[in-house]
Amino acid sequence: MNYQASQSRYQQMSYRRCGNSGLQLPAISLGLWQNFGHVDLRSTFEQVLHTAFDLGITHFDLANNYGPPPGSAESNFGDIMQGNFGKYRDEMIISTKAGYTMWDGPYGDWGSKKYLVASLNQSLKRMKLDYVDIFYHHRPDPNTSLEETMAALDLIVRQGKALYAGISNYPPDQAQQAFDMLKQLGTPCLIHQPKYSMFVRTPEEGLLDVLGQNKVGCIAFSPLAQGMLTDKYLNGIPDQSRASRNPSLKPDQITPVKLNAIRQLNAIAEQRGQKLAEMAVAWLLRDDRVTSVLIGASKVAHVQDACNALKNINFTAAELSAIDEILKNLD
Ligand SMILES: NC(=O)c1ccc[n+]([C@@H]2O[C@H](COP(=O)([O-])OP(=O)(O)OC[C@H]3O[C@@H](n4cnc5c(N)ncnc54)[C@H](OP(=O)(O)O)[C@@H]3O)[C@@H](O)[C@H]2O)c1
Fold this sequence. Notes:
By secondary structure, this protein is α/β, with parallel strands linked by helices. It has helices at residues 42-54, 72-82, 113-127, 146-158, 172-185, 207-214, 242-245, 256-271, 276-285, 300-308, 317-328; strands at residues 15-17, 24-26, 28-31, 59-61, 93-98, 132-137, 162-168, 189-193, 217-221, 292-295. The protein has eleven helices and ten strands. Helix 2 (72-82) crosses helix 3 (113-127), helix 3 packs parallel to helix 4 (146-158) and helix 4 (146-158) packs across helix 5 (172-185). NADP nicotinamide-adenine-dinucleotide phosphate is lined by residues 31-35, 61, 138, 168-169, 193, 221-227, 230, 232, 241-242, 277, 294-298, 302, 305.
C-alpha cells in the first residue's frame, strides 16, 4: 500500500518521558497481540497501523508469540515495514518480548539466556529489522535465576540487537531486584509493562511506587480490559468482538456485576463528554508515573477513540471517587 505519513502527526499526541531515560513515548501506544495475525485481514490492520502513526503513535508493541499463529504478527509487521511504512523506522519505537511458550523443547520458553537470545534473533528475522528499540522479558521465570535472565537482557543490549531493556508482569519485589541487577550491569531497566486498567488495579498495590522510586517507565497493557471498558458489551456480545471469537476474553468474564459497573462508568463518561473507551484511557494517564497506555485495536475507529482521550485527561475529585466507588464492588 502506498503510504505517506500525515504532516500533522506530531500535533495532537503528547509524549511522556520514560522514567529518567532519554526516551519519550507517546501517551498512546499500539499493541499487536491480536488482530495482526495471519488469521486477520491485512488491509484492515495495515490501515490501523497507518492511522496510528498519522495520529502520532510512534510506539508499536509486539512479542514473539503474537498472532495467531505465533510469530505471524511479527511477520506481518515486517512485511508492512518492507513497504513505505519502513521509511519512518527512525521515527518509531518497536518492541518485542520473549518469555511465554514459543517453540518445542526446553529452549523455547521462560527465561534462560539461550531462549531470550535465540528468540530475539528469530523476531528480528520475522520483522526484517536490524534491531528493536525495547526488548522485554515477558514474565518472571521461577526456575531460572534472575541473574541469568537480566544478564541476557544486558547482553542483547550490548550486542545492539535492542536499544533498551524492559520487563513485563513482574511483581514489585522481583521488579526491584531486576532493576538493581540491571543497573549494576550498566543496562538500566527502561520500562515495566504491567496489566493495568479500571478493572485490574494491581499496579496500585506497590508496583507504581517501585517504578516511581526507581524512575523506571510504565506502559499499561489491556487498558480497556480487552474491550470490556467500552460501550461494546452493553447490549450483549456482538459478532466479531473479542469475547465472541477469542479465548483470551470468555463471555462468562462479562458478569452481571461487571456489566453493572460498565453501565455506571459509561454514565460518568457521558457526563464528561467522553466515550467510556476514552475515559478508561484518560483515567490511566491521570498518574504521571504511567508513561504510555498500550491499546489494542481491531478497527481504525478504536485508535481514534484512544487518541481522543487526550482531549481531557483531567478528573475532578468527585469523578475519581465516584469511579472508585463503582470499582470497589467488582467481583
Ligand atoms: N505483556 C503482556 O503480558 C501483555 C498481555 C496482553 C497484552 N499486552 C499488550 O497490550 C496490548 C493491548 O492489549 P489488549 O488488546 O488486551 O488491549 P485493550 O485496549 O484492553 O483491548 C483492545 C480491544 O478492545 C476493543 N476495543 C478497543 N477500542 C475500542 C473502542 N473504542 N470501542 C469498542 N471496542 C474497542 C477491541 O476488541 P474487538 O476485537 O472486540 O473489537 C480491541 O481489540 C497488546 O496488543 C499487547 O501489545 C501485553
